[in-house]
Amino acid sequence: MARSLDRLYKGFRNLVSLSAMWSMKHPIYSVSSRSPSVRSMAVLPFSFSKPWDFSLPNPSWGPEMMQLYEHYNSMCEVETEGEEKQESSWKRLPGYNRLLKYATGGVYLSKMIQSKARLFTRNIREPGAGFEYVLFVNIKEQKCVCILQAGHLLEGPPGHVHGGAIATMIDTVTGCLASLSGAAMTANLNINYRSPIPLGSTVVMESFLDKKEGRKMFVSCKVTSPDGTKLHTEATALFLSINLNHLMGR
Ligand SMILES: CCCCC/C=C\C/C=C\C/C=C\C/C=C\CCCC(=O)SCCNC(=O)CCNC(=O)[C@H](O)C(C)(C)COP(=O)(O)OP(=O)(O)OC[C@H]1O[C@@H](n2cnc3c(N)ncnc32)[C@H](O)[C@@H]1OP(=O)(O)O
């Protein structure tokens, strides 16, 4: 299990693009300058070996988002049992912007599309405007939790989050769980919208692996208010593990 988490981490790191880092003019970190080269140096808060991790707190995160982040993040710390230190089974997953490894391998993608490809849920640059989220996984319990703060660009019904945006995040959380032991694709996603999610609010998305049958993974997901009293959305999904080479047409 620890090995599969390692693999997942490496996968996430490998998925990051250099160009995504350059193109990410994150307003909070921008220092304006007339010279592009100077601006590049001033804008980037990290070196090339360290891509920007979107799942760390930024000033757009509200108190509920921060509180939940701190709660789950504290569970990721090393546990001590008597004298012995044990690695926690909770891990925060870093969140990057671009799935470079697969995009560049895609035989169907033109060079232009490859260079512009971005991870759907991370491609709104203004902090707090789109999907602000962080994923935590518990390998032992085969569980994934996402804390989501839904921004103003995700409006569907007036003042509330678009059902497609909710579906996107459910696909992301369940997909993350299904991909813990290797690449998997959504074959089927069933969603019941129980109560609308107000724009700007924070919700907790919990996903569980219900059953595994060969390549098939049956996953469920529940979206609730931070205190768990209000059920917003319920979903079930079927994922099939895939061979990425097949996806890339190799
Ligand atoms: C995109 C890949 C990402 C990989 C990332 C990997 C690692 C990164 C790490 C972490 C990732 C973190 C987060 C993930 C974030 C987001 C996740 C997004 C996921 C997506 O957003 S992904 C896009 C939408 N997704 C598609 O675009 C799929 C289109 N589709 C296909 O590509 C094929 O359709 C496929 C591959 C699904 C199956 O094709 P196939 O040829 O491999 O399998 P086949 O058809 O033979 O079915 C075998 C058995 O499954 C049963 N079966 C099949 N489909 C069924 C269905 N719908 N309902 C009920 N049963 C079904 C059959 O009935 C048979 O059952 P039986 O064996 O019992 O007869």
TrEMBL record:
Matches recorded under CDD domains: PaaI_thioesterase
Any single GO CC term annotated in Swiss-Prot or TrEMBL for this entry: mitochondrial intermembrane space
Enzyme Commission number: 3.1.2.2
Every Thioesterase domain range: 159-230
GO terms, biological process: apoptotic process; fatty acid metabolic process
InterPro entries cross-referenced by the UniProt entry: HotDog_dom_sf, THEM4/THEM5_acyl-CoA_thioest, Thioestr_dom
PANTHER family noted in UniProt: ACYL-COENZYME A THIOESTERASE THEM4 (PTHR12418:SF19)
Similarity field: Belongs to the THEM4/THEM5 thioesterase family.
Protein name: Acyl-coenzyme A thioesterase THEM4
Lineage summary: Eukaryota, Metazoa, Chordata, Craniata, Vertebrata
